[in-house]
Amino acid sequence: MKNYLAILPIALLVTYSQVMVKWRSGIENDAAGASFASRLLNFASDPVILSAYAAALLASFAWLYVVSKLPLTIAFPVYIGVTFVMVMVSGWIFLAEAITVTKLLAVALILGGIILGMNADG
Predict the structure, then answer these.
(1) What H or E segment, with its residue span, contains residue 120?
(2) What is the pLDDT of residues 41-94, one digit of tens each?
(3) Residue 101 in contact with residue 30, Cβ under 8 Å?
(4) Which H or E run contains 24?
(5) What is the pTM of this model?
(6) Domain that holds residue 29
(7) Could you tell me the pLDDT band of residue 28, with boundaries at 50, 70 and 90?
(8) How many domains does the chain have?
(9) Cα separation of 91 and 103, whole Å?
(10) How far is CA 16 from the centre of its chain?
């Protein structure tokens, strides 16, 4: 179980990364008329975007630990499922994205799959 818990910080870092990139890209898209090169330079010098990429890089290094301790066929679906749920909830809280009945059903199925997958080796 301890090895499964190691997936949570990775999912948190990736969720942070995705939400920050989406948030900042929305702000940058408001800069009408800016050239692609100018927008790219703004992204590359944005401390929030840089922190998002740093979080993703840190998550990728932490992922090395997880895959050394768990079978990839178990670790990856758990990681993706947990991250999906976290991104959906974070998008709702921080980006005012809608949570629909279909999304809630998808989350329920994903969580059910995670529970089944974690017990597959049991």
Answers:
(1) none
(2) 888 899 999 999 999 999 999 999 999 999 898 889 889 999 999 999 999 999
(3) no
(4) helix 7-29
(5) 0.84
(6) 2-118
(7) low
(8) 1
(9) 12
(10) 7
